[in-house]
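Researcher: Let's do a round of design. I'm pasting the structure tokens now; please hold your answer until I've finished.
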């Protein structure tokens, strides 16, 4: 029913300066071409995608279409996989992305897999768990699907079961000497490739071991290039790690002349909420956030099992907005003019929102204080829960200023899509009773301004492949630094 013709009247703004293809119909996915109009105010600071990136994306779309599910090369490649042969059946190569954890983690993992697929000329196919991709996102590539066909047509079994012990992983194949690295530093298949496996599994989770991390070495990248199928499992934003692979640096530099805008462009290219999620976003926006001078988003994520309200976290939020003068100072009841602002609070709990409303409601700011939902706790495999999370990320991304909770990938996605450098509140997981004590103190400072809009990569490899030792990965190149919120992580800034 959505087979209507592609629109010819799209403006450069709607196409995000050429980032998006005009090949889709408007009706099939309204968010794709409407997204721009919700980010208009920030246009003067907008960062245009490079012509080089646009060329890459158009060529990648052609590759996805030529080799994707339903095509003859795809059938041949699946047949090759089933037959257990390692040699490629066609010139099409594939990357299957297996992401997991909360929606923020999954989106960062998917964006990372996409960039890796573009860099290595592979077709990206995303594995979904209970329709957790198709229920949330439109197809990003025209004339094909990015969803990995399930069931009989895909022979690798339960993709979620791949893990550190899988014998097909890069790390385990290195350990078992299926792959060997010669004195010249080149990795190769030990028996000349005759018995190479039909696919390689890339285990890129936090807590991965030395051999799996060799993924970030040039010599292993050269070897992986020949594998017709790769499976990649991660929950992280790997992009800063890709920027540290020497053989990718030239290409990445051309794609992203503003390196710290990588996720901004990748996320805006790849993610488009499906129509009913988008309807929720836009109607909430119109009712609660539109027409106000300045939108202030506050994302409060408390890493705890039981959703108990914590006073010191509220104090941290209030102290951050006061100190950074993000909201009007409340001196007495005699405030004369309400400031032309609106506050959007997102949190699993309603308690913080209620306290913030007590503080800033009552006409002190023109737009009032709003919270779209309070889900209580994180729920797994629950589509309507995920849909609310997605719509709140997009609502946060329309804000002019953001206060986010450190460590949270939910906040990273919002800041990245919006191109907003947030004030990050340092956070620690709540493990014990003492972490919940009334006496616990607010960190000093309560928040810091982020260096860039980029997400933090929480589990980088510290191994320098050329020097053959661990190094400080925050000091290898000037644009990859340690994160503000996760000291062992790295981000592009
Ligand atoms: P992270 O755990 O903060 O890194 O972010 P994730 O998005 O990966 O996982 C947290 C999940 O908890 C989200 O995907 C949501 O399902 C839920 N969640 C956390 N905070 C919020 C919130 O403010 N609003 C909504 N609707 N859901 C949230």
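Researcher: That's everything. Go ahead.
Model: Designed sequence:
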């Amino acid at each position: 029913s959505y087979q209507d013709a592609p629109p010819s009247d799209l403006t450069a703004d709607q196409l995000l300066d050429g980032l998006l293809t005009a090949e889709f119909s408007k009706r099939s996915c309204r968010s794709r071409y409407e997204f721009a109009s919700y980010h208009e105010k920030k246009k003067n600071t907008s960062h245009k995608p490079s012509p080089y990136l646009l060329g890459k994306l158009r060529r990648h779309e052609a590759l996805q279409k030529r080799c994707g599910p339903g095509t003859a090369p795809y059938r041949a490649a699946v047949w090759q996989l089933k037959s257990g042969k390692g040699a490629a059946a066609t010139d099409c190569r594939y990357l299957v992305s297996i992401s997991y954890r909360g929606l923020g983690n999954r989106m960062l993992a998917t964006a990372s897999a996409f960039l890796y697929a573009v860099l290595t000329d592979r077709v990206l196919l995303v594995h979904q768990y209970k329709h957790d991709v198709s229920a949330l996102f439109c197809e990003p590539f025209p004339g094909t699907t990015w969803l990995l066909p399930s069931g009989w047509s895909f022979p690798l079994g339960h993709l979620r079961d791949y893990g550190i012990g899988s014998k097909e992983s890069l790390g385990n194949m290195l350990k078992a000497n299926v792959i060997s690295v010669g004195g010249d530093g080149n990795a190769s298949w030990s028996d000349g490739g005759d018995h190479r496996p039909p696919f390689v599994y890339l285990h890129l989770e936090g807590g991965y071991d030395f051999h799996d991390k060799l993924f970030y070495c040039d010599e292993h990248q050269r070897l992986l290039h020949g594998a017709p199928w790769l499976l990649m499992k991660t929950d992280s934003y790997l992009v800063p790690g890709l920027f540290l692979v020497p053989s990718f640096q030239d290409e990445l530099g051309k794609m992203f002349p503003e390196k710290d805008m990588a996720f901004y462009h990748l996320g805006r290219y790849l993610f488009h909420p499906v129509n009913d999620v988008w309807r929720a976003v836009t109607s909430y926006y119109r009712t609660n956030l539109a027409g106000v001078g300045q939108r202030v988003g506050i994302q409060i994520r408390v890493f705890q099992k039981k959703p108990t309200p914590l006073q010191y976290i509220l104090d941290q939020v209030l102290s951050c907005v006061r100190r950074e003068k993000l909201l009007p100072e409340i001196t007495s009841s005699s405030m004369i003019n309400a400031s032309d602002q609106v506050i959007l609070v997102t949190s699993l709990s309603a308690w913080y929102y209620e306290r913030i409303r007590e503080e800033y409601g009552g006409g002190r700011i023109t737009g009032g204080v709003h919270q779209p939902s309070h889900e209580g706790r994180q729920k797994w495999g629950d589509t309507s829960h995920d849909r609310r999370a997605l719509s709140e990320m997009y609502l946060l991304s329309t804000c002019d200023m953001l206060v986010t909770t450190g460590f949270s990938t939910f906040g990273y996605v919002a800041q990245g899509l919006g191109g907003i450098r947030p004030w990050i509140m340092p956070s620690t997981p709540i493990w014990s009773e003492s972490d919940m004590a009334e006496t616990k103190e607010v960190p000093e400072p309560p928040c810091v301004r982020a260096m860039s809009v980029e997400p933090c990569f929480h589990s980088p490899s510290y191994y320098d492949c050329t020097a053959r030792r661990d190094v400080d990965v925050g000091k290898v190149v000037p644009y990859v630094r340690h994160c503000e919120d996760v000291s062992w992580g790295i981000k592009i800034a």
